[in-house]
Amino acid sequence: MINLKHILKLRSLPGATSCTSAFLKETLTAPACSRINASMISGFPTPMRRELCTEKKMPTVRYSDPAIREPLKAFGKYAGECLPKYIQSADVTIFDELEILIHPEGVLPVLSFLKDHHAGQFVNLSDICCVDVPSRQFRFEVVYNLLSLRYNCRARVKTYTDELTPLESCCSVFQAANWYEREVWDMFGVYFTNHPDLRRILTDYGFQGHPFRKDFPLVGYNEYRYDDEQKRVVIEPVELAQDFRKFEYSTPWEVFPNYRDADKNMRKEGGGDEK
Amino acid sequence: SKAAGKLTTGLTGLAVNSTPHISLTALYDRTLKLLARMPADAKYRQSTEAIVKERLAAVNSEPDISRLEKRINCGQIEEVVQQAERELQLARSFLSWKPWEPLIGQAPPNQWKWPL
User: Fold this and answer.
1) What keywords appear on the UniProt entry (chain B) (predicted)?
2) Which of A223, A270, B88, B91 is the most exposed place for a label (fewest CB within 10 A)?
3) Contact B115/A259, CB-based, under 8 Å?
């Protein structure tokens, strides 16, 4: 059972986190750390990275602050309990980012909830982007990035769709979605219903194709050049002066032991270079 | 009157509300009426009722605006009114969407798998 006051209290004081007071206790008693921080002097709680004064077992690994993770996890769980019809899962990634995975029917309800609810107040739509993974049944993954100014918190909402199924436009919820959705339509071909003005935004007038799809070639299909005889720019099929070169950047040493299987899967599909 | 209260909120487009108690009680009462139409076991209804009732209690017991702002601790009173308006709109939409029902569909098996 989520304690709502816990969520609201934790996130309503700007800059102060629940760990700050615990941290202050730690610094006063821990003999190893003799740094004076600003909060000791001024008395006003300032956010301070705990890693500076804890013994680092893995100094090369990014420190994951539980004071950031726990409220995000709590809010994700709370959102999942409020909207069980649409939210398939709500997790915090390894980089302490809240991701809410939803069914495509739930775009408007979930975004409205995050924006309008008292505990959310994600009033700012930072970005809408799309990821093309052609091997999936629903190849396009549309990602909405939100920011709550009130609670200084970010959230991500992810849905999925394929080439033919449209998504509901969220322009009625966020005015900023207008051009972002136009960009997703132009670059990927994801259609948004009830969009006030869904037309191309980045490609040339009369351009055919959706450039950011994985099956669209890097150099495109047509090239433009100025023709001196016709005294205008002409469009012709692309001709490269050099053959397209593909580099294999593989090393003989294993780089990511945790992703050993992913490596094999990529190779099976005839995938490209591993980093 | 404005002379007694604040001159400006400091936020563009947000005018000073000279009678915030009236606005807030009206909005919260309407929200509670809408919430009462949702199923009692809906998490959204339970938590929103708790928030709204707490704020309504604060509004009813604190006549001074700046003390009320500090007590609610969520920005200026005009922003609190904005939040109440948004919550009311959300409750209205939720009555038609009914998001407390069980999940309409799971994603296909490897939809969210990353790396592939």
Assistant:
1) Electron transport, Membrane, Mitochondrion, Mitochondrion inner membrane, Respiratory chain, Transport
2) A270
3) yes
